[in-house]
């Protein structure tokens, strides 16, 4: 953790509290090895970054005060449209993508994907939020990406209307894919689609193209979904100047 995140739920009589079964309590005790009077970097989830001071430290809980210092850097204007992957992959992807700082993550049940994945424990909002917080803690940010789940690619486009001010990228493999650097008009919002381990069906590819997506390449190697996602989002952030 490069920042310890908390919410108003941790508020107690004399400040904010982490109890002994909380991973943050264990991190402060066993990794940071802090004591009463020590400070640590903290932030309110989707709020300000600041300084925490330990007021009380027992075998049952840590009580700390918090003072605001600065606003977090905004998330990058990118919507990752991801074919719903295996749960173990989803955990890694959510953590890494939230660390990279995308604004939105749209999880889509694809035609070639396993439908039962949507019923896994990791598809529950409470579990997704925990993973996102973990990723943001690694990145030193307080801002959590918004995550939505759609039952199909068609359903996504029925709900989300992407206008001409968005760059729409379909990462794929094939000779008809261009390099992301060759995209003629780069807008200040990007929707980047990446398939799950079985990829997109031809029907789904057609839907993407009908909605103005441009096929782009991440290379000619067949990548794991989590590798393709990290590589694809990194290409977007760099090519569109969001890292500058």
Describe the structure.
The protein is elongated. It has two domains: 4-70, Hypothetical PUA domain-like, domain 1 (Ribosomal Protein L25, Chain P), CATH 2.40.240; 76-239, Alpha/beta knot (3-Layer(aba) Sandwich). The longest helix is centred in the middle third of the chain and has 15 residues, at 125-139. It contains six helices and twelve strands. By secondary structure, it is an alpha/beta fold.
Write the layout of secondary structure elements.
Elements: E1 4-6, E2 11-12, E3 15-19, H1 23-31, E4 39-44, E5 49-57, E6 61-70, E7 76-83, H2 87-100, E8 102-108, H3 125-139, E9 146-150, H4 153-159, E10 167-172, E11 190-194, H5 202-210, E12 214-217, H6 225-239
Parallel strand pairs: 1-4, 7-8, 7-11, 8-9, 10-11, 10-12
Antiparallel strand pairs: 2-3, 3-6, 4-5, 5-6
Instruction: Just name the CATH architecture of the largest domain.
Output: 3-Layer(aba) Sandwich
Number of helices: 6
Average per-residue pLDDT, rounded, comes to: 92
Strand order of the largest sheet: 1-4-5-6-3-2
Order of helices and strands: EEEHEEEEHEHEHEEHEH
Number of domains: 2
Radius of gyration: 20 Å
Structural class: alpha/beta
Taking the alpha carbons of the first and last residues, their distance comes to: 25 Å
- In CATH, the homologous superfamily of the largest domain goes by the name SPOUT methyltransferase, trefoil knot domain
Spans where pLDDT lies below 50 across 5 or more residues: none
Level-1 CATH class name of the largest domain:
Alpha Beta
Question: What's the main sheet like?
Answer: 6 strands, mixed
């Amino acid at each position: 953790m490069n920042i310890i995140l908390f919410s108003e739920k941790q508020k107690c009589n004399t400040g904010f509290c982490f109890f002994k079964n909380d991973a943050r309590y264990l991190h402060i005790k066993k990794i940071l090895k802090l004591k009463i009077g020590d400070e640590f970097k903290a932030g309110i989830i989707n709020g300000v970054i600041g300084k925490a001071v330990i007021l009380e430290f027992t075998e049952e809980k840590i009580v700390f005060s918090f003072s605001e210092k600065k606003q977090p850097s905004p998330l990058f204007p990118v919507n990752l449209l991801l074919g719903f992957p295996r749960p173990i992959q989803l955990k890694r992807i959510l953590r890494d993508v939230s660390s990279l700082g995308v604004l939105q993550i749209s999880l889509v049940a694809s035609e070639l994907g396993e439908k039962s994945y949507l019923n896994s424990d990791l598809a529950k909002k409470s579990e997704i939020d925990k993973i996102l917080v973990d990723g943001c803690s690694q990145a030193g940010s307080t801002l959590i990406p918004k995550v939505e789940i759609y039952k199909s690619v068609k359903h996504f486009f029925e709900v989300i209307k992407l206008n001409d001010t968005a760059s729409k990228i379909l990462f794929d493999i094939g000779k008809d894919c261009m390099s992301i650097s060759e995209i003629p008009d780069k807008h200040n919002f990007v929707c980047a689609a990446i398939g799950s381990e079985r990829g997109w069906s031809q029907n789904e590819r057609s839907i993407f193209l009908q909605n103005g997506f441009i096929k782009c390449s991440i290379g000619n190697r067949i990548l794991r979904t989590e590798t393709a996602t990290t590589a694809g989002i990194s290409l977007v952030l760099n090519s569109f100047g969001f890292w500058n």
